Sequence to fold (672 residues):
Amino acid sequence: MLKGHQTWVFPSKPVIKSTAAVGGPHEAKGPLANDFDLLHGDLWLGQESYEKAEKKLLEEACEIAVRKAGLKKQDVQFFLCGDLLNQIISSGFAARTMGVPFLGLYGACSTSMESLALGSLIVDSRSGDNVLCGTVSHNATAEKQYRYPTEYGSQKPPTAQWTVTGAGVAILSSGGEGPRVTSATIGRVMDMGISDPFNMGGAMAPAAVDTLTAHFRDLDISPREYDLIATGDLGTVGFQIAADLMKKHRLEIPGEIFTDCGILIFGETPPEALAGGSGCGCSATVTYGHILNRIKKGELNKVLIVATGALLSPISYQQKESIPGIAYAVAIESSR
Amino acid sequence: MLKGHQTWVFPSKPVIKSTAAVGGPHEAKGPLANDFDLLHGDLWLGQESYEKAEKKLLEEACEIAVRKAGLKKQDVQFFLCGDLLNQIISSGFAARTMGVPFLGLYGACSTSMESLALGSLIVDSRSGDNVLCGTVSHNATAEKQYRYPTEYGSQKPPTAQWTVTGAGVAILSSGGEGPRVTSATIGRVMDMGISDPFNMGGAMAPAAVDTLTAHFRDLDISPREYDLIATGDLGTVGFQIAADLMKKHRLEIPGEIFTDCGILIFGETPPEALAGGSGCGCSATVTYGHILNRIKKGELNKVLIVATGALLSPISYQQKESIPGIAYAVAIESSR
Fold:
């Protein structure tokens, strides 16, 4: 049900029946390691290419989530997924493995919440009872595709972020136990002219602020409605830019409830990760692992996840286009 | 509302308030030229790259559809779009121009009906009143990305298809006059092991048959329910394979109501187009131009469009993966 300009409210509050977070070696060394269902010691996962390893991360996450929900693959009606690879091949090939009806999405690193928003719409409108939503990214495939193969060892500026190797998925259901999705705000594409692919956080910050503003306006609530508001993967640089932009727009989110998945996943001052984590898998694994665990433990009651995406491609960069950003906000509350 | 395993029925029957089809020079020479709203004499559209020309095709189609619906951009609540380019940049950049909340999709050439299916769900669930759905492809960008730049002049086998240069979009509304969307079947990813990117039709045929079978099973209707059933872009080779597969599955669609957008757009024996048209823009322009015009003229009452997509990427091909296919079926009926 539409409320305001761009926010969907879900009266039935679809249930997140289960989630799964699968990560790689860097995630295993990070402060949220204990929140992953499965961690891999190397980037290859026993596969012969990084792309096949990325697909395997996603397949493993899907399998774990289906099992944790006490379901079988055939109980899942729809699979909503996307990733960073050209033609979202990780999602397409994992959908082949799953064998269930598939809706391919592309929202860059915002895909985690784009899929959760659309999945909630499907469940809330009684168009599906068990819907699998998720996304995946892999450090080595993303670096190769967007910047340079990691084997080149090229230097990066301090604004650069570290693509998370990880898959995060959730099973949304019309019934059962678990945290519930209450609303979702669909973002507009925002572009403030940043064209440096080593500063994705800066490029995405305006979209995060625009979607946050729309969310509070459409629902006529204040940020204090939530115990935690987490942006997707702005990292330390983008998060500061977002904070500055919010001041300009007179949007005040108290510091103690405002954070960023890209800062959380590798900690405040990660040596390799520079400005923090990024990639589709960043907000997906942090939300479906760490944040939902905190809800289940009773530490959090209502959270808002604002996943951000940078809608560039290597071609658009080469053709001197700036980097448009987008953000999707999804509100999740405890079932208690 | 879910019916059967994978079909959504839309009780409110969302209205296709307006559509737009914009094409390029080959489409202008084809038998459906009169069904386009706008045709361009060259592939560049006055832009400095083919990618920018592709974006312009889409922006023009959006503008025309909004105008034909008697709306302004700000009346459109959501824009659902995808394309064939890496990271769907044509859609992302057109969404930046539109300035409305955006949901990026990727279903390869099936994106036309993936977006119409999801758009119908949004309108039917009262989650949006005016939703813009569409897709675009461009011959030169697709050839460069998936096979070889056209300037190389490389030879193609007769199974190859010709990517349509065109954008097709529709405005779906909760009210007003126009053809109506009644149901949509979401496809599974099917893969019969074809790995030749010059035989996309063959790779997609099993998905078309699987989705058609699911559609008739879920709704418990026969193909005779429709005056026309059109697959997306199987072309002459893929369409014959689909016909053979249907015989095996004992699914009989009478020849006089069964056709393919990839065969229609360039005619039966197009000299350059080999096995027929393909690309996101194929089923989009044929449906939103030619087929909806026939509905409006009273020549057709109920049609089923089964858009097909090949979920490969150049990387998946290089890594020796086969080509998975998917198909989305959407039923449209006359408002009379």
Q: What stands out?
A: Chain A touches chain B through 57 residues (CB under 8 Å).
